[in-house]
Amino acid sequence: MAREVTESVRLVDPALIDRNPENPRLIFREDELLSLQESIASQGILVPLTIYQRGDSYIILDGERRWRCSLKLGLTAVPAIVQSEPDALTNIMMMFAIHKTRSDWDPLPTAMKLEKLESVLAERLGRQPTEQDMAAAASLSRGEVRRYRNISDLPGRYKDRLLIELDRPRPLQVLTVDHVLESVRGAESLQKQDIIDEEEEESLADALVEKFTKQTLKSTVEPRKLPRIARAVKRNELSLAVARIVTLRLINDPKYTVDDAFRDSVERVDFEHNIEQVTSRLSRQIQEHIARSYTLGSQLEGALRQLRDEIDQVLHNASK
Length: 320
What we know:
The protein has helices at residues 30-43, 64-73, 88-98, 107-125, 131-138, 142-152, 156-166, 177-192, 198-213, 226-234, 240-252, 258-291, 298-319; strands at residues 3-4, 9-12, 17-18, 49-54, 57-62, 78-83. It is an alpha/beta fold and 320 residues long.
């Protein structure tokens, strides 16, 4: 039972308290709980929980980690601020508002709870909520809402892998939401340019995610180079054939990276284009030298002979 201590704070038996099913935070890591548990054991709960009463029990609005630790420590009473029970929509909105400043929320569980908020809000409004509606209801920016919606749209197989990853201690986590998002976006950009088909798009995204898991890829910057390959094809700066060759190699070669693919496509074409421009200028200079009937100096002769040997080497390599 609850014993009133002040007008706003009560001491409540944690055994009478339940977690809030609408809490966007789903992951509670053991190492972080142990640290908080040690603090509570030595100093007590310094910040009261925020709860609401439902019958003879209570539901948490804020303080689930403190509540979990109190149960493990066998505490018989915890300080709590008791509020009136909110309706379903207000409950979810309050959960987002209370945790607005929390930086330790994992994006995937938050995105999943935002889906629930969108469903309840749609029922209340009688229409599909706009991005602005969602931002106001969840105490988020429109950019954050957009990001969480993109996460929600990820294929289920990736969400399952990410949830498994979230159960691991932070230092041991390898795959992140951003790794998956960038992999999916990169593969999609190539499919939209018809460099690969939809089945290959899925295979490419899977391959990139696997490369992140095995740390063949380490930076989310790498997949962002795939849209640059797609744009190069669209502008006729890169042939579709070359783009397809490097893309299929990304799918089939576990060691081949996006940096490798970019080097073998866009970078190579840019480099060769620069050589073409230099060669064109040099050709005009040589033609002018011939037209003027200049005597060939020894230094220029040596430079031209060396250039000829290098050109022969390039052409020989190209013919292999």
